[in-house]
Input
Amino acid sequence: MALKIKTPKLVVNCLYLVGRRKNYRVNFRNGLNIIYGDSDTGKSSILNLVNYCLGASSIDLYDEIEIAGDYCLLEVLLLGTKYTIKRDIFNPKSEIEVYESSYDEIENYFPKYYSPNYSQVSEDGIFSEFLLNSMNIPVVKLKESPSKVDSKMKSLSFRDIFKYNYLTQDKVGSKFLFGENYVLIAKLKETFKLMYNVLDTQITQLEGIIGEKVKERNDLNKKNTAISSFLKETEIDSIKRIMEKKEEKELELEKLREDIARIDSEIMSDNSDLDSIRNEIKYIEKEIYEMSSNREVREQELKQNIALRNEYSNDIKKIKGTIEVLEKFPNIEDRDTSCPVCEQTMKISTLKNQFINSNTQSIKAELNGLRRRQKDLRAIYENLKDFISKADGEVKEKTERLNGLREQFDKQTKELVTPFISLRDSLTSKIGGIKVI
Output
């Protein structure tokens, strides 16, 4: 049974131009269609709209369509499958919508969105590749310059094939087939091979791989040339000599690192003589901290003692006043007087009755108790003052001792460590000057 090969086929069914005031529709029949009419009646615009819906990068419109038009649609058959292509006539860079249905049924389908060129990225891919795949035409890449081994590869698009099917008057002849654009001519030749099934896609893929490898080889040659020039300028004879020098530098670095480690060990050993001074400094610092903390506590207690004694003094003054009133008031003669609060007239005898039962003895006992407590607070106050004064003296004495130990520690540290530090810095500087390649 013979294998049936599907021949690429694109059939245009209808063209629609949707406008703001009215819509236009052009139906095409099977077979040859001839568009005729008077000058400036839109014949070229029909062909331009068809070409634009099939991926042209721009469109030329006459005034009426430009003023009243909005977008165009093209219903086509691609290998027998019906599609409707929708495109904005005023924005050629916007995505192209494709419905897998006739124009009358597009409202029942979700479109796919394709980018109009290879410089844009869309969710569903490139419009050119959609057309090629729908017509069973392989998507291949061709060399921009077939004669150059490392030439860049460029995708062969649907527009390259469509040029042989759609020609405008100014692109026939020299501009199309015999122009001076070498890149365009080379691509037209490869397209012609594809159309007549003489283009071997496997060969083009191998040429692309070969081109990448050649480019990689050329880059390596450039690097090799640069490294060779550098080696000549530095007068290094061979890789062997470089490796020998590298080993020498590594041995030198290892020796310097060992010397630094030895110096660090000696510094730590000599520092053990300073441990007793260091420990004494820490002990005195701890004592000063504890004394200062206790002094702050006693100082707070002293402030509280003074405040409490002042309260006792005020209470004693009030009790003395009360006793004086109780002792002198009964001897006052009876007479009328004004109330200091409400200013009403009242008799002294009435007030005397309020103090008849007052017991001055209990009040005097309370007064004596307050005086005893005040005396006790005074004794505590003196003890706190003595403690704070003694603590200040001890802190001062220990601070002087601490400063002396610190000076002694710094002096001995400088005498012991400084020679090692200078030597260590010298060795570190030498390490920094050694470069191992």
Remarks:
- Confidence is low (pLDDT under 50) at residues 172-176.
- DSSP finds ten helices and ten strands in the chain.
- The first strand starts at residue 10 and ends at 19.
- Residues 360-433 form the longest helix (74 residues).
